[in-house]
């Protein structure tokens, strides 16, 4: 039996994608934890940017939200949401985190409605800053639970653009070249995107998960390469750091 939880695996998997010396735009919850974990392990020179305007902090423990005062602890700037979003528009943000209620094979996200837009079955929170992050950050990391409803063949609404209809359609629509979804991380696997078609492709399966399990929990066909890696599990050191980051267990279960 695994000695780590799903949230710990998701946090570590997301952390491993981040790189030293890069800039990452983080939101509440797992993205915060992944950024803080990377900064305390393999990426000490990574610059964290919070949506509410904290830029370059050394956050002591997990903030409640992006507006928590701890998001400006030892920061290089206590700025504004406008400044944070402007950094993305100027091309200064390397990585951004997103989640959603639905995702399709091209990494488009829905956080607006389930069902018809004018008479939805469920009305969701909407974009917030997600469209800005998905449109302007160089690479976006998408964290979400996987099942056939969430990995949808046809979405009810596109809130945040991924690769739109695939191929060059994202850039033909006027979005900056070199931007777009980079990794999708679910409770089953990690995915990337095939470089020509821009379709979602299996990158690695989590320990104990079979390729068949991944494919059975998707509403669309996922590309499978000849070689599928196994996701690197959390190390004991990473699990210890996660407990330091979230000592009261807001996201990571207290041990």
Order of helices and strands: HEHEEEHEEEEEHEHEEEHEH
What is the share of helical residues? 10-25%
Structural class label: alpha/beta
What strand line-up does the widest sheet have? 2-1-5-10-11-12-13-14
Report the radius of gyration as a whole number of Å. 18 Å
Quote the average pLDDT: 95
Low-confidence stretches: none
- SS elements, strand count: 14
Distance between the termini: 16 Å
User: What is the count of helical runs?
Assistant: 7
Residue fraction in strands: 15-25%
Can you walk me through this structure?
There is one protein chain. With 255 residues, the protein is of the alpha/beta class. 23% of the residues lie in helices and 18% in strands. The chain has helices spanning 6-17, 30-40, 81-89, 130-136, 169-172, 211-216, 236-245; strands spanning 23-26, 47-50, 54-55, 77-78, 95-98, 102-103, 109-110, 113-114, 122-123, 139-143, 181-185, 189-193, 200-205, 229-230. Strands 2-1-5-10-11-12-13-14 form an 8-stranded mixed β-sheet, sandwiched between helices. A hairpin with a 5-residue loop joins strand 6 (102-103) and strand 7 (109-110). The longest helix has 12 residues, at 6-17. The chain is globular and about 45 Å long. The model has no long low-confidence stretch (mean pLDDT 95).
